Amino acid sequence: MSVWAILVAAGRGERLGLDHPKAFAKLNDQVLLAEPLRRLDESDWIDAIVLVAPPGWEEPAILLAEELGCGKVSACVAGGERRSDSVRAGLAEVPPDAVVALVHDAARPFLPEDVIERVLAPLSDGWDGAVPGLPVSDTLKKVGADGAVEGTVSRDGLWAVQTPQAFVADVLRRAVASDADATDCAGLVEASGGRVKVVEGDARLLKVTTADDLAKIASLL
Ligand code: CTP
Ligand code: MG
Questions:
Q1: For residue 220, with 0-12 CB atoms within 10 Å meaning exposed, 13-18 middle and 19 or more buried, which class applies?
Q2: Cα of 68 to ligand 2 centre, how many Å?
Q3: Which candidate, 101, 116, 119, 127, places its Cα nearest to that of 199?
Q4: pLDDT for 140-178, tens place per residue?
Q5: What is the position in ligand 1's atom list of the atom closest to the CA of 8?
């Protein structure tokens, strides 16, 4: 079974607010993108990697991959306006005979090998896709525009999902065939009728959104 990873790093990082894309934010003595790229390259489960870079940043992304000695990187393409467009651009570089496509956010640098193993396992049992998740632990409120609490939402059965997300490659291809948009790939697959399983995620897979997150992640690595 050939597993292709698509590392989406093409976002602008508006909430981080730097004058360059989030993927190239400084994280300890490297850039953010270096950590998830190295981990995917070193993973025993991954055969090849497609890197999706911010438009205009393909060259620095390729140079970084070379510098890190990431021999599995097979292509580097520019991403699109929305995350779904970037996934679409990356998937277009995955060859037709690839069996599994695993999509990971570069903004989640702490990528444990056992999470990759956990999201791949259900695909052998007939699932179309699998995503890592954690049960929601905070109390959830529905809040109006003026800040007034309108109600408390039951936490029962609610999970916060992360990446990497693994899919039967053909299922993901069908899911992105239209111009549909969703905040994660599983959303696209669900919308096209696919069956997606949630497996145990990892709290350290947190996503870098703000400067505080960068500091938190830097101390984990
Ligand atoms: N992403 C992408 N292409 C886009 C938007 C997002 O490849 N058009 C990627 C980001 O690079 C990131 C992941 O999707 O690795 C999750 O997105 P998010 O955390 O929202 O990153 P940004 O969109 O860059 O940040 P912001 O929303 O603050 O601008
Ligand atoms: Mg975004």
A1: exposed
A2: 26
A3: 119
A4: 999 999 999 999 999 999 999 999 999 999 999 999 998
A5: 7
